[in-house]
Amino acid sequence: MQSGEVLEWSASCLSARRCSVLAPKGSKKGDNKMIEQKNPASATRGRHKAFALALLAGACFADAALAQTAPAPAAESVDEVVVTAFRKSLATALETKRKDIRVSDGISSEDIGKFPSENIAEAIQRIPGVQISNINGRGSTISIRGLGPQYALTTVNGQAFKSSNFTDGFRYDVIQTELASGIQVYKSPTADMDAGGLAGTVNIDTVHPFDVKGRQLILAGKLQKQDLIGGDPTGKYGLTYVDHFFDGKLGVFLGGGYQELKDRGDYLWMDRWTVANGTYTPARLRYRRIDRETKRSMINGALQFKPTSDLQVDVIATYAKDKTTQDIHQQVFLFTTPSASNVVPITVTNGTATKVQVNNFRLENNHQFENRPQSTGALTGNIHYTGLENWDFKAVGHYSRGSAQHNEEAAILGINIPSATVDISNPKNIVFTTSTALTDTAQYNTATLIRNTYPNGAYRTIDSYEDAGQFDAKRYTDFGILESVAVGAKIRKEVLKRYVVRKDGQNTIPASYSPTMAATGIAITNFLDGDMTLPAAWVSPNLDVYRAALKAQGVSIYEAFDPAGSFRVERELTSFYAMANLKGEVLSKTFRGNVGVRSESTDQTVKGYIGGAANPQNTEVKLVAGNYTTKKSYDNILPSANFSVDLTDNLLLRVAAAKVLVRPIIDSNNQLATTVTTSTDTTGHKVNTISIGQGDLNPMTANQLDVSLEWYYGQGNGLSAGFFSKKVKNGVFTQLVCPTAYEGTALSKDASGVCVSAAGDTYSITQSFNDARTVDIHGYELNWQQSFDAWLPINGFGLIANYTHVNPATSTTGFRLANLSEHTANGTVYWENQTFSARLSANYRSAYDQTSVESFFSGPLGHTVAARTQFDLNLGYNFNEHLSFAFAAMNINNAQEKAYLGNSSRWQMSSATGPSYYLSFQYKM
Q1: CA–CA separation, 327 and 491 (whole Å)
Q2: Within 10 Å of residue 920's Cβ, how many Cβ atoms?
Q3: Which DSSP symbol is given to 443?
Q4: Where are the beta strands (DSSP E) in 715-754?
Q5: DSSP per position, 235-268
Q6: CA distances from 837 to 595, 831, 874 (A)
Q7: What separation in angstroms does the CA of 609 have from each of 39, 320, 880?
Q8: pLDDT digits (tens, 9 = 90+) for 113-157
Q9: Which positions ≥6 away from 172 have C-beta within 8 Å?
Q10: Of 96, 76, 80, 99, which Cα lies nearest the Cα of 33?
Q11: What is the residue-averaged pLDDT of the chain?
Q12: CA 224 → CA 229, 266, 320, 685, 834, distances in Å?
């Protein structure tokens, strides 16, 4: 069933109690609405009656399916009733899954512009095997079956959709839900699909006007508020228009929306530890408060033109823009600066100094502002021709681009703290006391500050774009089980580029025009929402005042090109495929399937810069000494096969096997080009972060197998169980290295395991490798979707639930699965009638490991994020057939991200984001 179609639950059912449902005489099929009585005075009464008929029909149908009875004789008079809203979206998604030959799961919009989640990432997490990662409590990126965001391919209407920031994996929070009419996660590919989804392919279907009946104009609005940030609610506004012209030969769709969001996240974590004789001792405690403000705009449209019955032309365009700013206030307590002997353990338990006394250490008070505009968009043209008998031709031209700019600046003030105590023995209540109050502005005397730096920042531009041309031909046959043969070719050109400019104040700002904290400082309060026993308030430097002070003195900051942080990757991708579609019987069982092979050729070029001497105007970057180019080419043959067998009318066996790949990825610690970032710490020592380029990495491949058994025992009801296995080759892993020397500087590890030079400069060097082993990832999924109408005296109740188990890779070296929860589960109980609806959803994921690649808060040793469950509540009210309202409370149980290091008793991180709420309306004309 195509997204946007109405799911019709018909009328006649025979079960143990035999019943037949008839629509009122004179009624007609509704166009995406309930059957109405002709008499306007009884419209409300008629709608309730029609809805009751729909519920009764569903109950009878489910009862009949459960009883496995034979089809009933045709009733004397049968009309149709329509089930709408959430139940319709569930049944549509289930029917799409049933008809698909591939192993897939999906979700469907309840109506145009009405998706059952706040954002697309949060909607996708309801799909079996899909996990999300949050930023400030808001869903952003996804993982499929334990493989991280970079291993999934995201497409829109089957074509690549470039990420706004290719170093993070695809950012779903940039896209508003109004873009999607349905989302499918394909876990087994077919030969005609683009390669690149080692974990799976997420396809977002947009609204197509030919899938919508009649003219529709929809207005929508929403008020949203996160509890922790406080303040006034922010708004969201949307307009959607669908129409048809020239006797239905031209379809037009246009949608647009604007949204503002505000949220806040507070994080407390142990950023560094010293490890000696097996004992972990706190070395650096950090506060971090992030106040985030987002302004989003999106426009998408589609034209579909069918001048003849055998020719159709589609043009689809999508553009989404996200302007996000982050106001970050940090307190960094450097316990081991100036000396590790500052830290005196008081209590040591199970290899951890759970309580320590710290003397004469340094505090860095940091206020950082980040401006992060980003955008993503695509333009696709399709031509579909069926004018030759038994032939089907398609041609596609496609362009997609994602872009992000990260502009950051910071003021950093350094002071001395005479003493403090830290007690982490109870992870639920970290106790931290300081001898001087963090709100005492007297200790920030500008003449005696250890550090007074502004600005400290960079401007990074990140772009990714793709041009593609594709041609497909299908020949229908009448030759035994061979239904059709399809062949196709595609040419893609992909570019990934990064350009970095550093903007740093090189010297301490003179006291003569440095802002004073007492007069200009910003009061920060209620850190961690009052949780924990620690100073929850401090005074932070004011960036606006620092900017004004430099301007008043006529000081301009030199913008230095950073050659070591800039690079360009070009890929030319050529592919061909051939696929046979099969249909027939085996052992008297009907089956559908396909077998095919795809050939992928990749020509990759990495271009970067060779750094020379330090830039005299900004010693944190180097001058350009030259350029380098690294080329690599490889070919991959990717066979695939998908089969579904109808064991009975309602029981389906699905088997799929394929070879999949993902080309070398780029993230913050895995670069195809060498990148170097340098900064200066409180003591004046350099902090060098270096990723050694690996332009010759091989693509990761996996031989995968899926087997599932699916039972569809009633309209909208289903139960399935599936097993999957992926054997990954050339898995890429990144590790910290400390060579004996780097660019002529001798290096060694200190007591805390940090790579340092004799001068005290820090070197954080990462290098990526292909793992020679074959890593086995396997697990199983369970999925249940059930209406309770046949079981309960009150109609409208139902359940959707799924559980996924993934066996994690147990090796501590080489390629391993970060961000992998061994157990994940989702469940939603719902109730709805024609007027009201309610849903309570729970999302659970077990503990998972993260390195510094996956999380800023993990530190160099990594950490394990503790298991957690989040509950969300949705309530709906349909005022009439045109106007509806919804209320949602997200994270109503205030689930927080907490982490530990090594074992669950060794606390590493706590956070606070709190619940959020929204109230929305939709008016449909």
Answers
A1: 43
A2: 19
A3: G
A4: 717-729, 732-737, 741-742, 745-749
A5: EEEEEEEEEEETTTTEEEEEEEEEEEEEEEEEEE
A6: 44, 6, 8
A7: 77, 32, 63
A8: 666 566 777 777 778 888 777 666 677 778 888 787 778 888 999
A9: 119, 120, 121, 124, 139, 140, 141, 142, 154
A10: 80
A11: 85
A12: 11, 20, 20, 45, 26
The token duo for 871 is 């509950």
Find all residues with CB under 8 Å of 539, minimum gap 6, and list them: 365, 438, 439, 441, 444, 517, 521, 522, 523, 524
- Whether 448 has a pLDDT exceeding 90, the answer reads no
Q: Which ranges constitute the DSSP H helices of 522-569?
A: 543-552
What amino acid is encoded at 704 in this protein?
Q
Phi/psi-derived region of residue 82, left when phi > 0, alpha when psi is between -120 and 50, beta in every other case:
beta
Short-list 468, 317, 419, 314, CA closest to 378: 317
> Rounded to 5, what percent of the chain is helix, strand, coil?
10, 60, 35
Q: What is the sign, positive or negative, of the torsion defined by CA atoms of 737, 743, 748, 750?
A: negative
Which residues does residue 343 pair with via DSSP β-bridges, in sequence order?
Answer: 358
What CA–CA distances, in Å, run from 749 to 79, 146, 377, 761?
78, 33, 46, 11
The confidence score (pLDDT) of residue 818 equals: 76
- Where along the chain do its domains lie? 1-83, 123-344+353-407+453-505+557-924
How far apart are alpha carbons 493 and 605 in whole angstroms? 12
CB-CB neighbours of 163 under 10 Å: 26
Residue 247 structure tokens: 């006797």
CA dist., res. 166 & res. 734, Å (int): 17
- Give the amino acid at 138: R
Residue 287: which of 531, 542, 609, 611 has the closest Cα? 531
What is 123-344+353-407+453-505+557-924's CATH superfamily? Answer: TonB-dependent receptor, beta-barrel domain (2.40.170.20)
Closest by alpha carbon to 225, among 920, 782, 921? 920
Structure tokens at 240: 């959607």
SS3 172: helix
d(CA 858, CA 850): 7
Give yes or no for a contact between 358 and 342, defined as CB atoms under 8 angstroms apart. Answer: yes
Half-sphere exposure of 825 (CA within 13 A, CB side): 13
Q: How far apart are CA 377 and CA 374, in angstroms?
A: 11
d(CA 184, CA 418): 58
pLDDT digits (tens, 9 = 90+) for 328-337: 999 999 999 8
Residue 256: phi and psi, rounded to 5, are -145, 155
- For residue 16 the two structure tokens come to 């143990």
pLDDT, tens digit (0-9, with 9 covering 90-100), for 809-818: 666 677 877 7
| Contact predicate 223/919, CB 8 Å | yes
pTM of the model: 0.84
Whole-number Å distance between alpha carbons of 168 and 667: 6
In the chain, the percentage of residues whose pLDDT exceeds 90 is: 58
Q: Around Cβ 794, how many Cβ atoms within 10 Å?
A: 10
What does the chain come to in residues? 925
Alpha carbon of 803 to those of 90, 105, 127, 146: distances in Å? 17, 13, 9, 13
